[in-house]
Design goal:
By secondary structure, this protein is of the alpha+beta class. The chain folds into 2 domains: about 100 residues, Phosphorylase Kinase, domain 1; about 180 residues, Aminoglycoside phosphotransferase (APH), C-terminal lobe (Aminoglycoside 3'-phosphotransferase, Chain: A, domain 2). It contains 11 helices and 9 strands. Strands 1-2-3-5-4 form a 5-stranded antiparallel β-sheet. Strands 6-9 form a two-stranded antiparallel ribbon. The protein has a two-stranded antiparallel sheet with strand order 7-8. A hairpin with a 5-residue loop joins β7 and β8. The mean pLDDT is about 95.
Length: about 325
């Protein structure tokens, strides 16, 4: 069995259809400019990711740069809720976490976030080993700083948050007769709750488009919308899916990294099976008009996880 299902199918850095600065209401633009302290002369839309909310680097007349997100409560309720949750989580992160800081927050007809601007870029795709190592270094800092999570920050547990994913294997088993070990994988996924518990804040959405690599090689972690409480190694495993698909040897990474080297192989496989079911089922959902590449991304991720799981389990 091949180690990857083919090259990543989505256009890297061009997956999102986002609101532009000129389409924001005049009163919202005026509010944002007051927060920036200078008129906006250029708005550079961040076209990575899979959501349609406003997300731009704003260049002001005084030369300063600001990163701002915004979504309409009425027209984009799902994404406004997501930004609201991100603001709540960012505000609670303690010093030392490698994440841009929340500077200000508006919650009215629009939810808007002013987030510290970090000069950087996403890791290269295909992934390179040095970029991956920097990302995993950042996750080790997160695990250290966020075990336990900040006091007062109410989060779902990994056991509860992942529970709906188990049933997604019913769809996969019914629709993918080409997966000869699907029922075994579904049984593996069903045992996830025994291995994902922990007392670390887990980001759950670590991908190249949610990371910034600065000039000094440090990785900053962005988009803290839906963290949970669980085992400290979960984010490292999730991060390795893209690099695995891009051809890197992630098994050696699992064996070397402090967060994963002592995790039993069966525990890794249970969560990998859970991810496989989630991605393969989600890939069959309707394509959102505001995110035309989401299903391509999920299908590729699912195939990467499936090939990886088969290799680990010795399934032909």
């Amino acid at each position: 069995m091949s180690s990857a299902p083919g090259p990543y199918p989505a256009p890297v850095g061009q997956t999102a259809r986002r609101l532009e600065w000129s389409f924001l209401p005049p009163n919202l633009r005026a509010f944002i400019e007051r927060k920036c302290g200078s008129p906006v002369v250029e708005a550079i839309s961040q076209t990575s990711g899979f959501t349609p909310g406003f997300a731009s680097v704003l260049v002001c007349a005084d030369g300063s740069r600001h990163f701002v997100k915004a979504a309409s409560v009425k027209a984009q309720r799902l994404f406004a809720d997501s930004y609201r949750e991100e603001a709540r989580k960012l505000a609670a992160l303690p010093p030392g976490v490698p994440s841009p800081r929340l500077l200000w927050h508006l919650d009215d007809d629009w939810v808007a976030l002013g987030i510290e601007y970090v000069e950087g870029r996403a890791p290269h795709r295909p992934w390179r080993s040095e970029n991956l190592e920097s990302a995993l270094d950042a996750l080790e800092v997160v695990a250290d700083r966020l075990t336990p999570p900040p006091a007062g920050l109410v989060l779902d547990s990994a056991e509860d948050d992942f529970k709906p994913l188990v049933a997604m294997w019913d769809h996969v088993v019914a629709t993918r007769p080409d997966l000869p070990h699907a029922e075994e994988a579904a049984a593996l996924a069903a045992g996830y709750a025994e291995v994902v518990g922990g007392d670390t804040l887990v980001h759950t959405d670590i991908r190249d488009d949610n990371l910034l690599l600065d000039a000094e090689g440090k990785v900053w972690i962005c988009d803290w919308n839906w963290p949970i409480v669980g085992a400290a190694w979960i984010d490292t495993l999730f991060t390795l899916v893209g690099p695995r698909g891009d051809g890197l040897d992630v098994e050696s990474v699992l064996a070397a990294r402090s967060l994963t080297r002592d995790v039993p192989a069966d525990s890794i496989d249970r969560v990998l099976a859970l991810l496989t079911g989630y991605f393969l089922k989600s890939a069959d959902d309707p394509v959102p008009p505001t995110s035309p590449f989401m299903r391509d991304h999920q299908r590729w991720q699912g195939e990467v996880c499936w090939h990886w799981l088969c290799e680990r389990r010795g399934w032909a």
